[in-house]
What does this fold into?
Amino acid sequence: MPSETRISRPPSRLQIVTDTTFRVLCRGFAWLAVGFAVFIVFKIVVAAMPAIRQYGFDFLTGQVWDPNKKQYSILPEIWGTLSSSFFALLVATAFGVMAAVFLAEGFMADYVFALLRIFRLEYHPVWRKLPEQADMLLRNLIELLAAIPSVVYGLWGLFVVIPLVRPGANWLHANMGWVPFFSTDLSGPGMLPAVIVLAIMILPTITAIGTGAMIAVPTRLKMAAYGLGATRWETILGVTVPTASRGIFGGVVLAFGRALGETMALAMLLGNENVISVSLFSPANTLAALLANAFPEASPKDVGVLMYVATVLLAITLLVNVAGAYVLQRASSGLEGHKS
Amino acid sequence: MTTLDARVDANVLRESGAHETEPFHGVDFSKLERSLRKPRTFMSSALSGIATAMTMFALIPLFSVLGLLLWRGGRKLSIAAFTQLPPAPLEQNGGFGNAIVGTLVIVGMALIISLPVGTMSAIFLAQSKPDNYLAATVRFAAKVLTGFPSILAGVFAYGAVVMVTGGYSALAGAVALSILMVPTILLTAEDAIRMVPKRMKEAAIGIGATDTQTVWMVLLPTAVPVILTGVMLAVARGAGETAPLLFTALFSNYWLLWHGHLELMQPTASLAVLIYNFSGMPFPNQVELAWAAALVLVLLVLAANLIGQSLSHRQVQ
It folds into this structure.
């Protein structure tokens, strides 16, 4: 029987070979992806080893950064990184979680629906789609906040935020200078504008993850609360937010990680001065900004020190990011457990 | 049943003289009405108002940034801006043509690196069993890397490429950006492949296709729109990054194509670094150019985002 007339045949030798090669290749690339991640950490830490040995633990506790005298230490930068991220996180969490509630509960759709009802268009074949579209638009707008490059935010901060907050900040310093937070004046770049811009940049992370977590809360939990006579916000604060709290918390931790690693906006707005101050108006510096400023002009010897700085930043952000990813993973598996 | 219906029913019952069976006897209906004077209702409405105000307030920066970019950047935008080289400090006019080309080339090279790594790993992840240890590790590594500080990608590329090849180059910039692009591509592509209906995959296996044939002829063609969404998002992210390019691609005042050959191993200009360099300058012309470059960069990034989103919407319908 000639082979052409047969409909089915086992895979040819060539097909088996390609199949095996392709599978191995896919697995290889997966290993490559993991290897790449490990190699990045390895490369930075190894490059930092000489400096770690030379400067040791004092590097983290001293306050002097003077390449001319070969004295290096980064306590002000660690302080600046943590405090700017912390303040930004406070602001961004307040606004981000509220925005997440607003999106997840479909407030926007409700408002547009109410507006349409005034004109009796709420069931019109074309107009009735508007509430849903308004909701989508709002969600996309919040996501667009994350799409704008950080260097553009830096530019905007330099020319808009600093002039905007300066009169108010200096008034606060003049009249309430005894409060530690207002103990210096804002001469230009400083903590407050940097924190404002940083908060704007990390808000979408909190909102996106928070919205997802709240939408995933089973509807019958909310319905049960409404059935017991709870008002809308009693339901939100008593049922939705607590049920979604792990997811929201995961988003907040990830946003904290973003804030710690954010470079450009802070390098442009923070003033890059080695100062430890609790004042909201004093200039400061961060690990990432220090890297951005010092690296382009670094001599080969300085590079080792900068690698040490990078290692510290790496350790802090990895810790926070791993924690965030872990919390989120537990949060999603926790919700699946509720479904039983 | 709303309060109004309840009251009507009660009235009907009252008129029919069924006093004994009246179910709402002794109920004060005014207490059941939704009134803002009651603290619980008032609280709810007030919080709704606060949530609305805060959400709208959070959007002000977006419109402020976009408006200012159009106003300050739009003024300076001309054909010269796209075709000329960056000006020296006191020079007038000039443009950022080389920076646009540089951004496109660096992002393009980063895509060449990250696309195969991202999609191939995604195929492996999507095809693997749920308890596969390697797959779980890859997924976790990718999730952690999505939050990887971009400046550290630059530090890595400096150590791995600049120090090895002995100079700043577009290639080093591309390596740095690819680290930031791989996780986005990988995670979206895995989702995309998993979203392909199971029956299509089973049909392919049922008629005797090998795994490779199933992937190339069924899974990938169906998943391509969503995979491209991830790619466009990654491109948008890569194009906007400054920190990883500062000390990998550095900057250059010249064209990438110099005397007829492509200089991939030379310092290369990019829009993002140009904005950073010029924003701190005391010369008005350069600051204005920074705004114009920011407008171009944001348009580029937003276009990539919108294309990406429209691709995945088509898939859903």
